[in-house]
Amino acid sequence: MRYYSTRNRNDPVNFAAAALAGLAPDGGLFIPAEIPRYPEAVKSSLGTMDYRDIAFETIKPYVQGEIPDSVLSDLVHSAYPFTAPIIPAGDRLVLELFHGPTAAFKDFGARFMARAFSYLRRNEEKPLHILVATSGDTGGAVADGFFGIEGITVTVLYPKGRVSPLQERQIAGLGGNIGALEVEGSFDDCQALVKAAFSDGDLRKRLVLSSANSINVSRLIPQAVYYAAAAGRAFAGKTDSDGEVTPRAGGNSIAADRARYGAAAGQPATMCVPSGNFGNLTAGLYAMEMGAPIRGFIAATNINKTVPDYLANGKYEIRPSRATISNAMDVGAPSNFERMAAHWSWEEMRRIIKGASVNDEETRKTIALVFKEYGYYLDPHGAVGWNAADQLANAGVLIAGPLAVLATAHPAKFAGTVEPITGPVPIPPSLQQVMERPLMAETIPADISVLKEIL
Ligand SMILES: *Cc1c(COP(=O)(O)O)cnc(C)c1O
Fold first, then answer.
1. What is the pLDDT of residue 250?
2. By CB distance 3.0 to 4.6 Å, which of 95, 224, 378, 425 could disulfide with 286?
């Protein structure tokens, strides 16, 4: 597959170059020259295929000629010992994307990216050095994804005192090839430090530097997989049963919900996506173009509603972000919008995507309501998705077929918000173990010369 910058269609590169570079040299984002289609045989069996097999079939055309089939097969098996179950709640479905090690959907992208990077750099002598600035979730997923991966060192920069204790242990509790720097400053300071490091000629001579943020095309593509798997299962009228870690209160059976939901099978699904930088929703659009049975999307945001406003009035206006309780979506200038706009016009987007924005009060009310009605614990991000779907229904927007709300994080990750509403949230064993890790971060001032010395 050839990849172009969103800003220049003349200089295509291959997957390895696009993935290892992250951002294109002209500041654009890499996009595939074309979105491939699933072969008919794959399309018709998405509902029954194993998650790893769907991952293999989805990613294959994007890396063909660069990652051999046998390597790709090993890679997806190693990246995904967990899957993305789809659970009925009332007459909706919840697509649970939090069964990975850091309990948020970013595990799906980060774990594939880490293994792909390691393979693509297998013949290089110098280790690859990845620098990431994080406000919380990305750093944890990247640290965990790359932990123990050969030939790669990671340094995560996070703002001191502004990530949760759990997030801090996910970033700074691993050691080994994962370095953690606690910066005396804000997330913007962390980001400025990473930018300064990338443009430092001296550092660039000594180290092979790369980034791992959400604009990387190797993080985006594997996120198309769970859309295809979920839409395929919904189309086939299948759902998954409650796993050990599904956050549902005892005594609430899903059997009744499954009966209520059953009628929607045999139709393409609408996916409701809690969004910030819009990488997740862009991956969904790719899955739909590839032929997964998807009717359309709901772009659910908190009050940082740049994209819903664009869908409504055609004007794209970026703004400073505002703090909310769904803080992984506090984005006023969604970086993946440039990728969406490169493939789809405003008219096309409006046809496929409905937008809705949700404030903190509505988010809290939704957590309470879904818990009361279905015994299901939503995290604040998933609750934004649920409420956005309610808003559209109340406005008379007809959504035919199955409606799946993406639950992007486990509610225990946001216990501080969820527990005052629902009472204690069951904590999955993986998160419990993380809390026992020692902290191994080094504290630094927001000063590039100090960062240079450490690197
Ligand atoms: C990152 C994140 C989001 C936003 O995803 P985008 O791809 O940036 O739109 C939503 N929910 C959670 C829990 C996240 O960590």
1. 54
2. 224
Ligand 1 center from residue 416 Cα (angstroms) = 18
What is the tens place of the pLDDT at every residue in 257-303? 665 566 667 899 999 999 999 999 999 999 999 999 999 999 999 99
Tell whether 289 is covered by a domain. yes
Give Cβ neighbours of residue 271 (< 8 Å, ≥ 6 apart): 95, 227, 230, 231, 284, 294, 296, 297, 298, 404, 406
Residue 305 Cα to ligand 1 middle (Å) = 14
pTM, whole model, 2 decimals?
Answer: 0.94
State the total domains in the chain. 1
Of ligand 1's listed atoms, the one at least distance from the Cα of 283 is: 7
Structure tokens at 387: 């409420």
CATH, residue 295: 3.40.50.1100
The CA distance from 152 to 239, in Å, is: 38
Instruction: Note down the domain range covering 280.
Output: 83-103+218-427
Atom in ligand 1 nearest the alpha carbon of residue 282 = 7
4-26 pLDDT, tens digit each: 999 998 899 999 999 998 888 88
